[in-house]
Amino acid sequence: MKYDKVRKHPNQLLSLTGFTPEEFEAFVPTFEYHWNEYYSRFTLKGKPRQRISYNRKSSQLPLIRDKLLFILSYLKNNPLQEYHDATYGMTQPRCNEWIHRLSDTLLKSLKTLGELPERNHLRIKYLTGQCEDILLDGTKSPIERPQDSDRQKSCYTVEKKLIA
Which of 5, 157, 1 is nearest to 85 (CA)? Predict the structure, then answer.
């Protein structure tokens, strides 16, 4: 699968990557910068590079857009590596190497653009204090039931009774 073929079908690109063609193209320069930064110093297997490497046209992923399409489609659709390597015409071990290297590059690119989820609880507390209405999406975690009957009543919720 090559980006040049997929970009002609915007709906297909959206379903494969979650990006519109405009969003994809806007993301390419940052991704390319981080890929070149990594690949100029390390091999695909992660070993320090001994000499300069040039992009080969015979590579399974010759262009930066092909690399970005590869990793985005893998992460969005979560196929088996066997399926993904068959789609891109490579072996499973090679597919695994590409996934690991491109995932790191994608993570650095998202961090540079400020698109990673917030992990700092103080920052989240500050941001939620700035909003009037907040919708939370979460699941209820089971807790150990207390032995004391008064404390049991405080832990009881009607939700369980309504579900049953």
Answer: 1
